[in-house]
Specification:
heterodimer; A: 75 residues; mainly alpha; B: 197 residues; Arc Repressor Mutant, subunit A; 2 domains; 13 helices; binds zinc ion
């Protein structure tokens, strides 16, 4: 698999989507051998896991909990 | 006391409560206002309880209620004027979809270190709705492409293209935020490709 192909499919690889097991293996083999793609992969992987963690870290406001309680009482 | 109704309520509540946090953070990213987000969640709860008979037990409750949330948002909260101040889809089409935004940057670690949770929130909220919805559902809430396509009633190919562009757009914005910060290393400012375009 060429560098361009790996880069084109990298998000599918990260998301665990679309690709066949064969394609995933080919990407892994490429990443093992190609420093440039590997660096890019490492960055994307870190970037999107940071993105997700930052977005999930979110406390529920008290005001919403009170509202939900009222809604349930009235359902 | 009507036991059938009470049972329905208990079952509904048991399914709903674990999703409340996810529903609220999604509502907040969609509406961008806390008061609206709380209204939206409340409306979603009332609507989904009313439609609960139509929910097939054993199927994906999370996807089902997210669909009600996003539909309610699009119908009641999303105003046409929001479109006006945001870049159009056509403008984004010009972008080379497969050009890695960060290619060639050496201080990637420095970039990530300068970004905060607030930056991430700001960037998500700045995305046009088409991209924002897909990004939130897949990248934050972890829905599969297929689930996202069902929630938003769009083809899976559209999910993939919007997700790709949404990602590139987010990286561009976050790259800008980072380079605008005093604390950011000067080399990011020099090398950030988003500055050049
Ligand atoms: Zn390569």
């Amino acid at each position: 698999m060429s560098c361009q192909e790996v880069i084109n499919k990298l998000y599918f690889y990260l998301d665990g989507e679309v690709l066949t097991p064969q394609e995933r293996r080919e990407i892994e083999e490429h990443l093992d051998q190609c420093l440039k793609c590997n660096k890019y992969y490492q960055f994307e992987e870190k970037f999107w896991s940071f993105f997700r963690t930052s977005s999930l870290d979110f406390p529920l406001p008290e005001s919403l909990m009170n509202r939900v309680e009222t809604v349930f009482t009235n359902l | 006391m009507n036991t059938v109704k009470e049972n329905k309520k208990t079952t509904f509540q048991e399914l709903l409560m674990p999703e409340l946090g996810a529903l609220f953070r999604t509502a907040l990213r969609m509406t961008r206002k806390r008061e609206d987000a709380e209204d939206l969640v409340q409306e979603t709860i009332v609507k989904s309880f009313a439609a609960f008979e139509r929910f097939e037990r054993g199927t994906n409750f999370r996807a089902w209620i997210f669909k009600i949330l996003t539909n309610t948002f699009i119908n009641n909260y999303y105003r046409v004027r929001e479109r006006d101040k945001l870049p159009s889809l056509d403008e984004m089409e010009d972008e080379n979809a497969f050009q890695p935004v960060f290619e060639g940057i050496t201080p990637e670690e420095a970039l990530l270190n300068t970004l905060t949770r607030e930056d991430i929130t700001q960037a998500i909220e700045a995305l046009p709705l088409e991209f924002r919805a897909v990004v939130i559902l897949t990248l934050v809430e972890g829905f599969a492409y297929k689930e996202t396509s069902e929630i938003l009633d769009i083809p899976i190919g559209t999910v993939m293209s919007r997700l790709h562009r949404g990602r590139k757009l987010l990286q561009k914005m976050l790259c800008e935020y980072s380079s605008n910060k005093k604390t950011a290393a000067r080399e990011i400012h020099e090398e950030c490709p988003a500055r050049k375009s």
